[in-house]
Amino acid sequence: MQEWWSPATSGIIGGLIGAIGGTFVGVVLGAGGAYLASRGKAKGLVTAGYLATSVVGIVLVIAALAAWLMGQPYHVWYPLGLPGVLFTLLPLFILPGIRMHYAAKEQQRLEGELAR
Fold this sequence. Notes:
By secondary structure, this protein is mostly helical. It is built from 3 helices and no strands.
């Protein structure tokens, strides 16, 4: 079986996935999602962003498993598997907290309406 890509290309692929994906998850979803959730705004967008990130992670894990099962070397499956696991699990651990922020904001809004 021929390698899908070389070790040098593997570094580029892993770096791009890590940099682009890490920036998206950390800045856009992490900071942006927390900012929006604390204000009770864009609930659907934030939730969809976290779930979409997990879906991308699952696709990367499946690709890594396929590469591993096909006998591809470490430098092929690892740059797919590591971000795949992180992109799958991290959003799923963070999402309940984000949902709690939205629920608390909704509760505050309802209490404010009742007080009027």
